[in-house]
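Sample A.
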Amino acid sequence: MATSLNSLLKQNSQQKINIYNTKLNRNISKSFNKYCKIQEKKNDKYNQPNSCQSRLANMSINQKKVNKNQQLLQVPQQQYNLSLTEINGSFDSQYTKLFYPNTLYSSLGGKQNLMKIFSNFTHKIVLDPEINHYYLNTDMHKQEERQIQFWTVLFDGPDNYQGQSMKQVHKGMNISEKSYDLVLKYLCKSFQKYGATHEEIQKILEIAAVLKQDIVNQ
């Protein structure tokens, strides 16, 4: 009798627990649905449909929109940088023609073109094993800047050269006449590549002939 009573009490307790869990789940479900409806009303108010059931899908869509917007933002930036380059080049050209008219510096394209020429020239001499050993302990970036400044003065452009004389620079280097001729050949090729005429090359060779005595066998 006692066993039957205990069993009955356990069954009643389990039934009560089940009923409680069922009610609890219903309340949770109602609360969640109510929350979703409130959120949907808010989103409708701001014209941003974003139901609870479709949040993950919308997150993916929004990420695609962000990526697309980033791509759109990058295009004007590239165009802006390009236009700045064109403006700087145009300004340098106009400046050169205005303040250094009828000079070799002006006819060779001014600073912008000389930068291209000596960049190409530096690339050539560094790759040639017959002459690149002369530059083993040289900062070629500074070397290139000094060369642009030096030749700018020789071409009757602005005088910004702050380096040493050719004799001081090449002292102890023991540059042979053959190496000198090879370097001069590369220099003329670089000038030709960026638009120098035959007459302009001849003027460059005349200047180089004067410099030769301070460079070879020092």
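Sample B.
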Amino acid sequence: MTTVSVVAVDMGSSNVRAVLGMWDGERLERREILRVSHRAIPKSPLAWDVALLRKAAVSALDIATDILGKAPDGVAIDGWGVDCVFVDDDNSPLTPARCYRDAAGARGRARLEALYSEVQLYRETGVLPQDINTCYQIAGEDVPRGTLMFLADHVARSLVSDSVAPWASAGVASTSSLVKADGTWHTDLAKVIGLKANQLPELMPELSVVGYRGTTAVMRAGSHDTACAVHSLCYPQAQFISCGSWAIAGALTPRAVVTDAAWQAGVTNEAATNGKNRAQINLTGLWVGQECRRAWKERGYNPTYAELDALVGKVPVPEALIDINAPELTTPGAMPEKVALLARRVGVIVDKPEEIMRLLTESLAHAQAKAIRTLRNVTGTQARVYMVGGGTRDRLLVERTAHLLGEPVCVADPEASALGNIVAQLQTLGVEPAHIATWMKTSSVLHEIHQ
């Protein structure tokens, strides 16, 4: 068969990656063609550089065209959820693309609590109330004019040659608390926070074509990075840990889980690409360590990951742990000092970078294992655990997670979001899912790590 080529643009909170996927009918060849570092712009409001994100997507297509000698068959954007931008009819931003770590979310949550019960909102949307949720970000400020678009959708729309109406992809929209568990806009809540009906775009399913850029199909292929990562597994019964800046433990369920037990356990629900639900527990993941490394680099200490990992491996298991979800660890700045202070509160002294990283590794491993056990109790799901994302490169983290679970963890691709994006695009273009699953099972994408 003719080779099908697609570009996955995977927007992370610290860099944008573009991966070219080429499917020849039996195997998938992948090549990273672009990686651009970025971070939220540290001003008020804390916001993303939308122009950089859009430029990166265009550059990825140009590079892919040069490599292939023709335009790729498809492209899709995935990224984190909750963050949005309000746009005019031409897709030009009317507001900054506020970052979920901006203080507006906390302000909005405090305002909305007095107007709408959080328990009721959870029952209706399946989304756990958190400061980062889109509804709180919007409630924290005066509602602007224009149409709401989630960030991944906005970047995708900027690629389409012809004019297309704004949309909201099911994957990213499900993270917002503005969409009910049945997949429709929560218009009552929108009205409470000041959003008009004409500011909410049409909700659209995943695995569909948005429009074209020349001959390249622009697709919705998961839209949310975790949805794409889980889609890459091709296993409908899997439990998963998607470990990147956030560490997300989850289980695939037929529908949103909104029981009393789920509420008390902190389970949130988001849409999966296959129409199912992802019942999840969200943890602060590798971001804390990334912030520590950034601080050390600014102070003149900049070891490679391999060098620091070697030092971390020599540090004994800490005698106590910190709460990886502690509020102090959710905002940037002075992260090594924040970790050291939390450690002192539980009787642990960490002075050296390797001691701080060892404490973070052990604390995250415990949190991940606990989250999987909790999800099994709450959802009744008992399945093999797959770990995806950048955290799979940290063998100590995976080994400790497996040890604490008391069972092997199947490690999947570190770039699982990009892989899932590619797989979803191929399926949208007509490639049989069974053929891709066969390649997955016979390739080196998956391997077990034991306790």
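B remarks: The domain at 4-224 is CATH 3.30.420.40 (Nucleotidyltransferase; domain 5). The longest strand covers residues 28-37.
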